[in-house]
Amino acid sequence: MITFISAGRKSARLIAGFRSFMDDSAITVITSAADAEESPCGCSIPDLDTLTFLFAGVLNTKTWHGIQGDTCTTHRALRRLGTEEPQPVGDQERALHISRAQRLQEERLTDVTVAINHTYGIMAHILPATDSIGGWSVTTPSGRMPLARYRTTYSDDTHACAVHAPPGSIPHASTESVEAIRNSDIVIIGPGRPVTGVMPALMCAGIPEALREVPVISFVPFTSERSMKTDLRVYTPETVAECPVYDRFTDLYLMDMRDPLVFDGALHVDTRTGSRSRRESLAWDIMALAEGLKKD
Q1: CATH for 2-133+174-295 (3.40.50, 1.10.3470, 2.30.230, 1.10.10)
Q2: Among candidate residues 189, 175, 246, the one with its CA nearest the CA of residue 217
Q3: Which pLDDT tens digit goes with each residue over 177-201?
């Protein structure tokens, strides 16, 4: 069993590479609901939605967002009526949001997610890191804002100074997500946006402890976010990177071979996932590395 702690579209691309040679039933994906948005139009959880559509075989793989061929009739009607949305939402995608919001009135997010997966005929195990929804925020040089708004305002995570859990206490990870990690042969963290994707999952109580019990491969955070344009990865030279949060449980770090960032002990690989062949090649490389970790 392989488990991913997913960070949005880049993680989805990597997972697509693994699906070329692995059964979906052997894949578990844990993702954050930190940027969930609840509105009269339903409950949107972007990373969870992307994974659902990926494993259901309906994801728009040109944008790695939304459903292929979906219409936006409701979105356009709302705009004419003076209701603006941060980004277009397809009609079928909106139906998922509405159904999720209704179910959440009586059920945990984990149970709702499992039920939706069953409806789509998904064999993979898609799990939210916690049943707590939203409430996270990010501090930027301009001030503090909700994580959901940060995600739509900034295209990368170079603007983040700190990530904050909801007021009160750190959310507890769901029993299902902790057990999935403990039962994994290998856990892969990333790639993708650490602030909006990975960090809210890693900060949930119970997940760091579980990660210490299994082999973990982590993509060095922020490397693919710095001065980046799509898959061109035009990097700005920097000095030295540190990952104190990841260091507690990571057995092997991966970073892009073109990245000039100095990171002791990291293995440089071609992390591009813009084409099917590159996604599959990276997935095969990671599997070979994972086998080595398991033997150790």
Answers
A1: 3.40.50
A2: 189
A3: 999 999 999 999 989 888 888 989 9
